[in-house]
Design brief:
Length: about 950
């Protein structure tokens, strides 16, 4: 007879049923392997009791359905208007094929930065398309992929200009026609570097007094100007010409390169990327060929693989900040790769003919408006423009802005007597009629047929001539192209990505869904705040919960990357010291710190003093105390990562904080390893004064092939007055938009709400369990480099592979062999050269972790075969890895079998991932640098 037994399975328990990988039964098996009686016992052995928080995180969890209902309610509090504010942000149409197949596709949004090029050929090609698009449209031969936004790209261009200029002047000229937020970010960047900013009209620039100048084209108020004379004059004085520009305008306007510009910057937002109340959007930079080695950010280049086939890779300054540290030219770490991919596909989707048609339609709509308003007696400027006009309306300004708002339209308030109008791709006859109605013009306008652009400023050169931009644009062909590229990549939707320090965890579908809802995606960042009440509810609750998690008192959500957060946090510390009349500029940084730490300190004008590591990987406390004492009243800050970059909880963290505070310095705790702290330790309670949080790590924003990211900073109360200011006019702005990449903050908020306080804490515990399980299972095969004082690692562990080099086996060989097993390699050679840093995260199931362990053990057996002389390193599958389908079908003359080479233990057979290229030749790519789409004949040559 059947008996009713009540199930304890809760299908609405998101944290334990959806986000956290191992089941309770699997955890019990793992704890047995680790040698811990319980999960809490393991945490007690791992995390020092003296730093554990006493109060639990206590908000309740929402189910996925309840979360989406809450999101709908919040979205409903936003008021979506037709935005004609412009100022660098425009309405755009995201082709549904791109929204569905790129933005909403985990094959694209869960990928990691393409540091392992063999498993990233798809997104590398997509980014190369983006670079080619930018280079073609700007008329400059080299572009990067990409920067954070237009304002930070302009700030990077200023520093790059100083680096390459022949002029020894210390000033930089900024045109008053730049977007205000761009000026604000440039000024923030210039101040700690001692760069004097000179502002004025373009004709006021004195080339002899500056190392460079930046102009906006088209200007923020719509002005068009041939900048050839300004560029020539700057060159004659040994200075550098920078032009901030608009890609859509360049489809019809003469390109900056043709005017003599050395560097061009801007945003690719209006190429199909929603405004999202500020981001994320791909900033871009292009430059003259001779300047390419000074360009910040990532550059995709073309190389060859081991068989001579064409292959893509990141070139030149990949991870420059990790290698050159405080001597790095930039701290750029996160790009906006996913958004650059979208913008590149937008250009592929429309092609040059389509882009030119869109640009012409936009311009003629603007001309129609200008003609009608002039005809009605309004003072309209300028005479020549692309998409933006500015009207002097005197005391009628408030009335006109209100009338437009009543008609569902936002116009730009300029000063106290002008109104700006910027039309865009979404503008149609109905929008034009509503705008005119707001100005009291009721007659139907006569559509303009002639451009308001002089012949000398019309584009004469071709662009996007590569065949990829001339594909058959049937959606079937577009869909297949996107699928072909994604099939070449390895992302989280295929396999575990066990990257130490990078926290590649689940990005749940429910967290991602709201970002494409129009109520969130279609808002302009400078829309009246009353229209964004839903967003501000999110900001307030997210800030409150982040304060509860971290022990800090206030947050700035503005920094739109982790490195940007470091920079903003150090600027906050510097401003605090200045307010007290103290001249402090020394920053102590352990040798184990993230590479962006010293680069960020240098950007803030601080002098970096490196602190040694003790043999066990901890900060050398004696060396630290000595250097803090020597710094004395010059000590500004110490930057530490906790748990340490070596993957352990250091018992001395409170002592490090005490010593720093005793000397008047501030403690910056890098939040990169927050995934080991949430619910267990609050950095603000153990001595931290400021931390950035990588929301694209701990708080579930996906990495997107290298970005987007967010790096908000939390501070104690005494630092709160010095947080980044509003880019529309406040001091200290670090990003173009007041709340950074606001739309992706929704993802972290959703994650926190669905996990609840208890779920977040359990996720941290399981992350630590998973890492210790790997360390325990692999300890006999690979030395674990650093263990805590109780023999435990934190949420990641470092496997030491350096002893294998004596047998000719390198860490590269192991990383590439893991591709054959269907895995992305762990973090290579950082923070210790010749090692692998493994972070499983809490999201991985025991089965996937066991598959990784199987792969590692099989590789260790292959290393043993080499060590015992049964096969040479050169002849082994380790050196030939990764194996492609081409390897499988050609004549086989190797010292091992096809089976061993192509189907090693741990690899799937039916669903095996095949890399599209063999091992990529990095040296060849740097010697023969090609950064735009190569001509078709090069594909044929590579295949021969």
């Amino acid at each position: 007879m059947a008996r009713w037994t009540r199930s304890d399975y809760n299908p609405d328990d998101f944290a334990n049923r959806r986000h956290i990988g191992p089941t309770p039964a699997e955890m019990a098996e793992m704890l047995k392997a680790v040698g811990a009686e319980s999960l809490e016992a393991l945490i007690g052995q791992t995390v020092p009791a003296a730093i554990r928080q006493t109060e639990p995180l206590d908000w309740p969890a929402l189910s996925e359905a309840a979360l989406l209902q809450r999101m709908r309610e919040v979205a409903g509090r936003n008021r979506v208007m037709t935005s004609l504010i412009g100022q660098g942000y425009y309405g755009t149409v995201t082709p549904p094929a791109i929204q569905r197949n790129i933005l909403e596709n985990p094959a694209w949004y869960t990928a990691y930065t393409p540091y392992q090029p063999e498993i990233a050929q798809g997104r590398l090609e997509a980014l190369l398309n983006f670079q080619t698009m930018v280079a073609d449209l700007t008329g400059l031969p080299v572009a990067n992929a990409s920067l954070l936004d237009e304002a930070t790209a302009a700030a990077e261009a200023m520093v790059m200009a100083q680096r390459v200029a022949k002029s020894k002047a210390q000033a930089f000229f900024v045109s008053e026609n730049l977007h205000p937020q761009t000026i604000a970010v440039i000024e923030t960047r210039a101040a700690p570097l001692g760069i004097e900013i000179l502002r004025g009209a373009p004709e006021d620039c004195d080339p002899a007094s500056v190392f460079g100048a930046i102009f906006q084209y088209p200007g923020t108020f719509g002005h068009l100007r041939d900048l050839s004379a300004e560029c020539d004059a700057l060159h004659a004085a040994g200075a550098v010409a920078v032009v901030a520009t608009d890609l859509l305008a360049l489809c019809v306007l003469r390109e900056p390169g043709a005017m003599g510009a050395d560097i061009a910057v801007g945003s690719a937002q209006r190429f199909g990327v929603p405004m999202g109340y500020g981001g994320p959007h791909a900033g871009f930079m292009a430059c003259r060929d001779e300047m390419k080695r000074a360009m910040p950010g990532r550059i995709v280049g073309v190389s060859i693989d081991a068989k001579g086939n064409q292959a893509y890779r990141l070139s030149l300054q990949t991870r420059e900040q990790h290698i050159r540290r405080e001597k790095a030219t930039s701290n750029v770490c996160t790009a906006q790769a996913l958004l650059a991919v979208m913008a590149g596909f937008y250009a592929v989707f429309h092609g040059p003919v389509g882009l030119r048609a869109i640009a012409q339609r936009v311009h003629l709509h603007a001309a129609t408006l200008a003609n009608a308003l002039r005809g009605a007696g309004f003072e309209v400027a300028p005479e020549t423009f692309f998409d933006t006009i500015t009207l002097r309306v005197g005391v009628g300004q408030a009335g006109i802005l209100a009338a437009a708002e009543q008609r569902g339209i936002n116009l730009r308030q300029v000063g106290d007597d002008r109104v700006g109008i910027s039309v865009d791709e979404t503008t149609d006859a109905g929008v034009i009629a509503r705008v005119l109605d707001a100005f009291g013009v009721h007659d139907a306008p006569v559509p303009a047929t002639e451009p308001a652009i002089p012949d000398g400023l019309l584009r004469e050169s071709d662009f996007l001539t590569h065949p990829v931009f001339h594909m058959n644009r049937a959606e079937s062909e577009m869909m297949r192209y996107m699928r072909r590229l994604s099939d070449r990549d390895l992302a989280l939707d295929r396999a575990m990505i066990p990257l130490g320090s990078c926290t590649m965890k689940l990005n749940a579908a429910a967290e991602m869904m709201p970002i494409t809802w129009p109520e969130f995606s279609a808002l302009h960042p400078f829309a009246p705040e009353a229209q964004a009440a839903g967003y501000h509810e999110v900001f307030a609750d997210l800030t409150e919960k982040l304060c509860a998690i971290t022990g800090y008192d206030a947050f700035s959500l503005q920094p739109n990357s982790g490195a940007q957060g470091e920079y903003a946090g150090l600027l906050t510390i510097a401003a605090y010291h200045r307010s007290r009349g103290e001249d402090r500029d020394i920053c102590l940084i352990p040798v184990s710190a993230h590479g962006t730490n010293p680069a960020s300190a240098q950007m803030c004008g601080m002098k970096v003093v490196v602190v040694k590591s003790a043999p066990n990987g901890d900060i050398d406390l004696e060396d630290f105390a000595d250097k803090a004492a020597r710094a004395g009243d010059k000590l500004a800050a110490v930057m530490i990562t906790y748990p340490s970059t070596h993957g352990v909880f250091e018992d001395t963290v409170r002592e490090v904080c005490r010593i720093t505070h005793d000397h008047g310095g501030q403690v910056y705790i890098d939040g990169a390893n927050m995934n080991a702290l949430v619910g267990l330790v609050k950095p603000g309670e153990i001595g931290g004064d400021v931390s950035h949080l990588n929301l694209h790590k701990t708080f579930a924003i996906p990495h997107g092939g290298g970005g987007p990211g967010m790096g908000p900073i939390g501070v104690k109360a005494h630092l709160a007055p010095f947080l980044p200011g509003d880019p529309r006019g406040g001091d200290g702005a670090v990003s173009a938009a007041p709340w950074g990449s606001a739309s992706i903050l929704l993802i972290s908020w959703a994650y926190i709400l669905m996990m609840g306080g208890e779920g977040l804490t359990q996720a941290t515990r399981v992350a630590i369990l998973n890492a210790n399980y790997i360390a325990s299972r692999l300890a006999g095969a690979y030395p674990v480099l650093f263990m805590g004082n109780r023999g435990r690692v934190a949420h990641e562990c470092i496997l030491d592979t350096r002893t294998f080099q004596a047998h000719g086996v390198t860490v590269d060989d192991i990383a590439k062999r893991l591709i054959d097993n269907g895995f992305h390699a762990p973090t290579m050679s950082w923070p210790v050269a010749g090692t692998l840093m493994v972070e499983p995260t809490e999201s991985e199931t025991k089965a996937e972790i066991d598959r990784l362990i199987t792969a590692f053990l099989a590789i260790r057996d292959e290393i043993t075969e080499v060590a015992e002389g049964r096969i040479s390193a050169e002849a082994s599958p380790l050196r030939h890895a990764p194996h492609t389908v081409e390897d499988l079908v050609v004549d086989w003359d190797r010292a091992y079998s096809r089976e061993q080479g192509c189907f090693p233990p741990g690899a799937f057979r039916v669903d095996k991932y095949w890399p599209p290229v063999g091992r990529v030749d990095n040296a060849y790519g740097d010697r023969n640098l090609i950064c735009t789409c190569p001509p078709l004949e090069s594909y044929a040559e590579a295949a021969e």
